[in-house]
Amino acid sequence: MEETTQYNAGQDEQEEAPVLTQTEQLQKERDEYLDGWQRARAELVNYKKDESKRIDDMMKFANGSLIRELIMVVDNFDLAIAAMEMHGGVEKGIYLIKAQLEDVLKQYGLEKTPVAIGDQFDPAIHEAVVSVDSELASGSVVEEVGRGYYLHGKLIRPSQVKVAK
User: Polar residues composition bias: which ranges (predicted)?
Assistant: First the structure.
């Protein structure tokens, strides 16, 4: 009888071994599915972030063409004020209207490109209109002819400048 018991114990061990292997295999499959699900979830989160950023950028620059048109109005205000100053005084209201228009544009992300006389010419933000003889170093900005603008940090119109020869 002892032999039979030993034989049965041996059979039980053999039967349990495949069960453990099957359990391990199922755990391995479970882990693979879990990893795949976690990767897919992370990709979805990243996609949502990317889409949100893309939509925000689209909203920021959607009115870019309108703002470019309004910049021309500001330029014409500058020309009108300059002409009025030559012929006499300029009414305070004209300055107020121009300032109000500039404030509205600033609220929508428009900023003037800073240009100072003597700055080195930078083709990334300047457009050379003409080269002139000057006491300044060659390649320096002599005069700003047309103002440049950024919209939400992106250059939408370069400053038009005169450059020293």
Answer: 1-11
pTM higher than 0.70 for the full model?
no
Torsion of CA 73, 76, 82, 88, to 10 degrees: -90
Provide the number of structural domains found in the chain: 3
What are the strands, taking DSSP E only, across 8-122? 110-112
Mean pLDDT, the chain, integer: 85
123 and 165 in a single domain? The answer is yes
* Banded model confidence at residue 64, pLDDT cuts 50, 70, 90: confident
Backbone angles phi, psi at 118, to 5 degrees: 95, -10
Which of 108, 123, 139 finishes a domain? 108
Strands 141-146, 126-132: parallel, antiparallel or unpaired by DSSP?
A: unpaired
